Fold:
Amino acid sequence: GLKTGFLEFWVPTFIFINRSEFALYEKDTGFQPNVSEGVLNLLSRNPEKFEIKSFKLDPIRLNIFNRYREFLQLGQINKLGSTSFIESIKPFLVFYKGLNTYAQQTKRLSKEALSFRKAITTAKDPEKTFFEAFPKALGFSIEALNEDKNLEQFADRLKQCAQEINSAYDELLKRLEM
Structure:
């Protein structure tokens, strides 16, 4: 009885209290940005369907993450957490959803822009998206981004790809007018 009481009360309580320090993932749906009563209820009933992950904080990742935040015109942070991940991934998702159908589906983009767009559309884990998918899409590894020169090039490519995707429909109209 004590084991069941511990699992049903203390684990969800701990997760809720420390929700900014950990990410909660449901195996079927991925990242759970909001740790609500319903999610905690599912966790206590089916703990095998969930994973809890702490955020890996090292100077390289923090520097890269702050570059994303700079690109998004958000303030720099000193500590990674679920709130900052949600706050930072949301503009990329809103950007994609705000594109017209042509910009969401066209193949007339550079290889990097196509890969970047795909990384946005398949984003399920903000940490993997920011530190694996986006760098890979733009031709970088996380290790290469440790160098200031590479990080600067990465930030420039990120901006260029976003602009290219955003202007895809305008480019189509220009080609049709010719």
Observations:
- The longest strand covers residues 22-26.
